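Q: Could you fold this chain for me?
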Amino acid sequence: MADTLLYLDIHKDTIAAVVVDRSTKTSLVTGCGVVETAEQTFAAAIDRIKELTGFVSGSCVVTCGAELFSFRNLSLPFTERKKIEQVLPFELEDRLPIEMKSMVVDFTAKEGSHGSDIIAAMMNREYLADILAVLNSRGIDPDSIGISGLSTGLKIAEDGEANFVLIDIGTQWATVFIIIDRQIALIRSLGIPVNASGQNGTAETFFLSVKQTLLASRLVDMNSPDFCVYLAGNADRWGEVASLPPRLDGVEIRKYELHTRRSIQFQADTGMHYQPEIMDRVLVAALKGGARNRVFDFRKDEFKKRKSPREFRHLLVKIAAPLVFAAVALIGYGVYEYTHLLAQQEQLRSEIHGVFRETVPEISRIVNPVQQLQVINNQIGATYKPGGNERAGITIIDLLAELSSRIPASYQVKVVRLLADADTLRFKAITGNFNTVDNIQKELGKSPYFKNVVISSANQSSQNDEVTFELKLELARK
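A: Sure. Below is the predicted structure, expressed as C-alpha cells.
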C-alpha cells in the first residue's frame, strides 16, 4: 500500500500543495498545485488544490506562513518543559497588545547554563479554528500544523551547515530564520509590497530591513561574519539579488534548491507543473525524516487531532495482537500441563493396579483399587485380632504396619512366613547377614506392641550368603 501524504503550505496570498508517495526509497511526487487566494475564498482555494493534486483522502501535514504568526524570544531560568508551559503565558501576556486567551501558543527551547532560550510562536485561535473547519469539511484532517520554511532551515542544518541565515522569499512576504549550532534561534516575518520587484528603491528597503533584523538579533556578528545567507523561494525575481553581498557587509550568499536532488522523483507530467520557487518549501517537509523537523505543532489543546475510527481499529489490532498471542500461549501451556498431568495420572493408576494385583491376585476385576483395598483391610482387621478382645485396639494390620515401620527400608529382608496367636507373633524371613538379624531384633524390641523379642533361629545357607532367621515376638498386654 502506498504511503501517500498531502503537504499544504498556507500563506495570506497563496496556497501550495505537494502529494508525495514515500513507499519507495525515493520521495515520489505524484501531484502538486498552487492557488492564489486574493480573489477567492479559502474554501474555494482548497477545492482547487484537491483538483490540481488529485488528492482524495489520506494523511496530511500543514504549514502556515510566518506572516500568520507572532514571535517572541525570551529566556527563563529553568529547563523543564512542563514548567515552561505553565509560566510562558504569563511571560508573554505583558509583551503582547492582545489577550493571551485569543492565541494558541507553541514554543521551542534551547537549554543553556542559565536556563532556557525560548522562541514562542502564536497564532490567532479563531483563525486556526476557521482553517481546520474548512479543511475538515473537505475531508482533510492534518496530522500537524507547523511554520512554513522552517523545515528548509533545519534541512540545511541537517546537511552540515551549523550557523547560517535563511531568507525565504514569497510574493508579499519574506521570512528570516537564524540558525545557530543547527538549532533555530530566531524567526521574523518581513512584509514586501505587491510588485515590489518593479519599484525603484524597494529592493534597497527590503535588504535594509533584513540587515536591521540581523543586527537587532545580536545572534550573528555583522562586523566579522562567520556565517552565510541562504536564499530560498522567489529570490530570482529581485534584479538586485546579485548586489546583496555588499549590502550585507560581504556575507556569502547561497541559493538553496531542493527539487534537483536525486532522492526526489516526479511522476509522469507532475514535473511540468512543479514550481520550485513556491513548492520547494513544501517538498522539504515531505522528505523522509521530515517529521523530526516539526519543531512547532499547533494541533494542541482543543485543536488536538482526534483518532479516527480507522486509527482506533488499527490501534485495537496492535493491542489485540499481543493479547491474542499471550492467550494462545497460555492455552497452549494449559493444554501441555493438562496432557502432562493426564500422563502422570495414567502412570499412577497403572502402578496402583500393579500393587493391587500383587497384593490380592485372586481378585481379577479392578474397579476402584483404593476402595477395594480398604474394604479388604477392614475385613482382615475385623477377622484377625491377635489376643482376642483383650487387645481389641490391635489388629493384624496394625502389627504389619508396626513391623514395616520398625524394619528400615535399607535392610534387605524377605518375609517368608508370619503367624500370630493370642500371645505371640512368629516372624520368619531371609536377609543378608547376622548383623541385620541383630539390628532387626533391637528395633522391634523398642515397639510398645511387643514386650519381648527373641531370635528363635538364625542359619546361614550353605549355597549362598543368605541368612534364614525366625523371631518370636510376645505381644504386650494393654
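A (continued): The mean pLDDT is 83.
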